[in-house]
Amino acid sequence: MGLLRFVLQGVGWRVGREIAEEGIDEVRARTDAEPPPPSAAERARVAARDARAHAKAERVQAREREAAVRAAEKAKRERDAQIERELEALRRKIDRDQA
């Protein structure tokens, strides 16, 4: 009885293994095929996401440009103030020398 059970188990394992291999082959065949084209809704979602990303990038660039302009204006004001301070110091020196 033990030998018969052992033989039947071996046959069962072989049959199970073949069925599993067939299943794996079917799954591979399905995944190797080209995926279906995206639906209209999916294309619309992707287009909307891309549009939002593009708009955000433009806003970031605009903010960076504005910050650069403000920094340049601030640097110009600081240079002008420095020049005015130097001129005022020279005027006071000239006034003291003339007096």
The value of Rg in angstroms is: 40 Å
Q: Poorly predicted ranges (pLDDT <50, ≥5 residues)?
A: none
Order of helix and strand elements from N to C terminus: HH
Estimated share of beta-strand residues:
under 5%
Largest sheet entry = none
Query: Helicity, in percent?
Result: over 70%
Give the structure's gist in a few sentences:
The chain has 99 residues and is mostly helical. Helix content is 91%, strand content 0%.
Task: Write up what this structure looks like.
It is a single chain. This protein is mainly α. It has helices at 2-32, 40-98. The longest helix has 59 residues, at 40-98. The N and C termini lie far apart (132 Å).
Helix and strand arrangement:
Elements lengths: L1 H31 L7 H59 L1
Key words describing this protein structure:
2 helices; 0% strand; 99 residues; mainly alpha; rod-shaped
